[in-house]
């Protein structure tokens, strides 16, 4: 009797069959796959547009088989706003890191949410500037060592880390704001659910949506991938608690 094999897992159609440039243990590749799965499940590949600015997010257009813009550093929400207003039938999202979304692009982020732009932001928070050399970011934790804070960040010199999810959740134009993580299988599943909800909020014309994703950066944290996963659990999550802060 011949055994019948059933396919239970395959690469999402939206995810290109190419190797990524991400470092071993980085969470970016996981998030890219989750976005691809959500696009496939909604059946919106032909009507989805992504915007990737400068940073580790910049090469997302190599990995997702959709139309993509590349934006100047921090300007992805502005580019996404223009695209969505001209083509309101499209599903438009930005894919941004913390140095981009919470620093040079803070004004664009805040005002896109305040206006209630019907776009979605996937915000990767790894508490450091990943691509440019491991410098201190707006999300770097107090005491965390980076190339520009070799003795650890201090509140007196650099202020406190910015909680973007809490900040944007205060704005009336923001409809769905959540923070998730990709440091464990359970959290990856929850992250996908939040990303799917954020896209559905946009598709239902309910306003601005943003998902903050806590992600590992072993290279610039000077840790092994296993140590980085533990650091997310023990250091990042206590300061950046995982939760849905606002939902329609």
Mean pLDDT comes to 95
Strand proportion? 15-25%
Taking the sheet with the most strands, its summary is: 7 strands, mixed
What is the CATH superfamily? Thiamin diphosphate (ThDP)-binding fold, Pyr/PP domains
Spatial strand sequence of the major β-sheet: 2-1-3-4-6-5-7
The name of the CATH topology is: Rossmann fold
CATH class: Alpha Beta
Query: Which architecture per CATH?
Result: 3-Layer(aba) Sandwich
Judged by helices, strands and strand pairing, the structural class is alpha/beta
DSSP, total strands: 7
The helix content is 25-40%
H/E series, N to C?
HEEHEHHEHHEHEHHE
Radius of gyration, in Å, reads 18 Å
Uncertain residue segments: none
Report the span from N to C terminus.
Answer: 54 Å
* Form type: globular
Count of spatially separate domains: 1
Helix segment tally: 9
Can you describe what's shown?
The chain is α/β, with parallel strands linked by helices. The chain has a single domain, classed as 3-Layer(aba) Sandwich (Rossmann fold), CATH 3.40.50. Helices cover 37% and strands 17% of the residues. Helix 7 (185-203) links the parallel strand 5 (174-181) and strand 6 (208-214). The mean pLDDT is 95.
């Amino acid at each position: 009797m011949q055994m019948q094999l059933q396919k239970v897992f395959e690469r999402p159609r939206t995810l290109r069959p190419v190797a990524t440039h991400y470092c071993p243990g980085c969470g970016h590749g996981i998030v890219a796959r989750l976005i691809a799965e959500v696009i496939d499940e909604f059946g919106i590949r032909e009507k989805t547009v992504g915007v990737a600015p400068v940073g580790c997010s910049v090469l997302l257009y190599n990995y997702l088989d959709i139309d993509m813009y590349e934006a100047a550093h921090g300007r992805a929400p502005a580019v996404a706003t223009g695209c969505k207003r001209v083509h309101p039938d499209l599903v438009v999202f930005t894919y941004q890191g913390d140095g981009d979304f919470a620093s040079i692009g803070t004004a664009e982020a805040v005002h896109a949410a305040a206006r209630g732009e019907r776009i979605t932001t996937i915000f990767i928070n790894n508490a450091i500037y990943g691509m440019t050399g491991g410098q201190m970011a707006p999300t770097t934790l107090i005491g965390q060592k980076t190339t520009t804070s070799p003795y650890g960040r201090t509140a007196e010199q650099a202020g406190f880390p910015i909680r973007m999810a809490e900040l944007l959740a205060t704005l009336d134009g923001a409809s769905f704001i959540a923070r998730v993580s990709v440091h464990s299988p359970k959290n990856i599943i929850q992250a996908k659910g939040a990303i799917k909800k954020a896209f559905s909020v946009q598709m239902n014309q309910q306003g601005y949506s943003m998902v903050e994703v806590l992600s590992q950066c072993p290279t610039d944290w000077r840790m092994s991938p296993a140590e980085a996963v533990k650091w997310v659990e023990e250091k990042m999550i206590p300061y950046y608690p995982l939760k849905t802060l606002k939902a329609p």
